[in-house]
Amino acid sequence: MTEPGGHNKLYIVIFFYYFSMLLNRRDFLKLAAAATATAVIARYKIEILNVFAEAKDYVHICWLNGAACTGCSVSLAQTADPDLLEVLTSITVSNSGLPIALPDWMYVIHPASGSLGVELINDWMKHPAGKKILVVEGSMQHEGFAETGGRDLREWVKDGARVADYTIAFGSCSAFGGIPHAKGNVTGAMSVQDFLKEVGMVEEAQKVVNLPRCPGHPDSLVLTLASLVQGIEPKLDEHNRPVAFFGKNIHEEQCPFRPYYDKGAFANFGQSEEGCRFKIGCKGPVTRADCPSMKWNDHIAFCIDVGAPCVGCSEPAWPDGEYAPFFVELPSLPTILNIPVNVWGTAFLGAAAGAIAVHAARKAISRKEVK
């Protein structure tokens, strides 16, 4: 975009994606029940546009950044569906002539900065009408490691969590501490939820919805926002993750290489080989996420699809403990029907050989009887 104001239009288009998912209850339930979120977003585009047209007020969302690489912001910015430009230019709030949603604040791609940015954050906190949702990207640290507008980030997050109806921890760093929380960290990096508990804000901590992965998946954020804006609280697991996105084990229920595992056939080097990725470090057996159905990069593929092992980035222990090193197999082999997989593979091959032998013997007997 090279025309005057072109960059600002791009910023607003990007922001609009996560502000604009105002679904009515019926359409959201239909969406949530679908097999893949992405396909449903596209399928219900017309219904979504109709719901936008009926909205009467802005959605108030503030996005704050802690210790992270900003990859989650980039992930959100690269979403593909629906056609946000059409939504942005076609639908306005009442008679204001303004788009249905304007960004309150987001560090990475908001055109405002400096004192204006601080003013926008304060305005979001003081806004008297509409639901407030706080999105945090990145982990929390000890005092002094991150400041915004002359204040420690910890204070901004505390104030934001107090006024927000919900807080969303987007990405593994904010949900569970992530890479900044890894062994050797000297900043005290921790999850948003643990931070709020540490400072005595237990009630606010309970309202945190964790959307881990590295980076966070944009569709999970959009659908969670759509749910919360409509007053529908998603069912959460023991780690405050929505079960809709983190309710299935990748290895047990979703992995395209699972048939190789069941046969005891393993890749030992990399993506050029056939076979289960377990022996090159796949953490799918201890990972719950919908990556195989949601997929990445405009919904083309996910880690295991392209031959890499799953590193378990949606889990609280990542990247340390049982999730490290990335390319070393888990310390204990998972089981099938309580039989270790290495034994199962041998048994499977043995059984297959036995079946072939039995089949050959039966054929020989049949021939003999025919004669």
Structure report:
The chain has 371 residues and is an alpha/beta fold. It folds into two domains: 241 residues, NADH:ubiquinone oxidoreductase-like, 20kDa subunit (Rossmann fold, 3-Layer(aba) Sandwich), CATH 3.40.50; 83 residues, Cytochrome-c3 Hydrogenase, Chain A, domain 2, CATH 4.10.480.10. A five-stranded parallel sheet has the order 2-1-3-6-7, with helices on both faces. It is elongated, with a radius of gyration of 25 Å.
Quick structural gist:
The protein has 371 residues and is α/β, with parallel strands linked by helices. It contains 17 helices and nine strands. The chain folds into two domains: 6-246, NADH:ubiquinone oxidoreductase-like, 20kDa subunit (Rossmann fold, 3-Layer(aba) Sandwich); 250-332, Cytochrome-c3 Hydrogenase, Chain A, domain 2 (Irregular), CATH 4.10.480.
**How would you sum up the major sheet?**
5 strands, parallel
Assembly type of the chains comes to single chain
What Rg is obtained from the alpha carbons, in whole angstroms?
25 Å
Number of helices: 17
Strand order, largest beta sheet? 2-1-3-6-7
Per CATH, the architecture of the largest domain is 3-Layer(aba) Sandwich
Total strand count, please?
Answer: 9
Name of the top-level CATH class of the largest domain:
Alpha Beta
- CATH homologous superfamily (4th level) name of the largest domain: NADH:ubiquinone oxidoreductase-like, 20kDa subunit
Number of self-contained structural domains: 2
Secondary structure class reads alpha/beta
| Overall 3D form | elongated
Query: Could you tell me how far the N terminus lies from the C terminus, measured between alpha carbons in angstroms?
Result: 83 Å
Q: What name does CATH use for the topology of the largest domain?
A: Rossmann fold
Average pLDDT works out at 75
Instruction: Give the SSE string.
Output: HHHHEHHEHEEEHEHHHEHHHHHEEH
| Low-confidence sequence ranges | 1-41, 82-96, 344-371
**Helical residue percent band:** 40-55%
The amount of beta strand, in percent, is 5-15%
